[in-house]
Design a protein that fits this description.
Organism: Rhodoferax antarcticus ANT.BR
Shape: rod-shaped
Number of strands: 0
Structural class: mainly alpha
Helix content: over 70%
Strand content: under 5%
Protein name: KfrA N-terminal DNA-binding domain-containing protein
Number of helices: 4
InterPro entries: KfrA_DNA-bd_N
Keywords: Coiled coil
Order of helices and strands: HHHH
Distance between the termini: 154 Å
Pfam families: KfrA_N (PF11740)
Radius of gyration: 69 Å
């Protein structure tokens, strides 16, 4: 920039004596001055352009390095994602297999529980039937025992009466006394036989 100012100052100095030119007309540009201005502007533009190109090349190289690094990172991330996807798929498969196994185990346990419940109900029913049969048998035994006790009591009473009669009636024969007390029929014969 200072070089341009310097050249402009030189041009002004050269143009100052030519001020005597007619008004309204444009003096011709000094060729040396224009050439110097052009050379200075070209050098500055070239320097600026080269500097800018160097800066852009540096930025490009940095961007390429970043892109390469990011590309490598992306490749690593893609590989990691593939690995994690495989691991997740394996974990899902294992979890699904585990859930299927749990469901099978649960179904088997439910089946066993149902079978045990049915067996328990069958045993309870059999127990109730046996208990009812035992109650019926006990009732029958009690009825039979009461019947036997009644028969025994009746026979004991009859025997007591027979003994009493035997003692009081020595003249009569015992068989006649028994016949008087007990009329002999089929039931009493059976009862006596028992």
């Amino acid at each position: 920039m200072q070089t341009i100012q310097k050249h402009l100052g030189t041009l002004r100095a050269e143009l100052a004596p030519a001020a005597a030119v007619e008004p309204g007309s444009v003096p011709p540009a000094p060729v040396d001055a224009v050439q110097q201005i052009w050379a200075a502007a070209f050098n500055i533009a070239q320097s600026t352009t080269l500097h800018r190109i160097d800066m852009l090349v540096g930025l490009r190289d940095a961007a390429l390095a970043v892109v390469q690094t990011q590309s490598q990172d992306l490749t690593a991330f893609a590989a990691n994602i593939d690995f994690l996807t495989d691991e997740l798929s394996k974990a899902d498969s294992a979890q699904l297999a585990h859930l299927v196994e749990i469901e099978k185990s649960r179904e088997l346990e439910q089946k066993n529980a149902n079978a045990a419940l049915e067996q328990l109900e069958a045993l309870q029913k059999e127990h109730d039937q046996l208990k009812h049969q035992a109650q019926l048998d006990e009732r029958d035994r009690l009825t039979e025992r009461l019947s036997q006790q009644s028969t025994i009591d009746r026979l004991v009473n009859q025997l007591s009466e027979v003994k009493s009669l035997l003692h009081t009636r020595n003249a009569q024969t015992p068989i006649n006394v028994i016949k008087q007390i007990l009329p002999l029929n089929a039931d009493s014969t059976v009862n006596l036989a028992q």
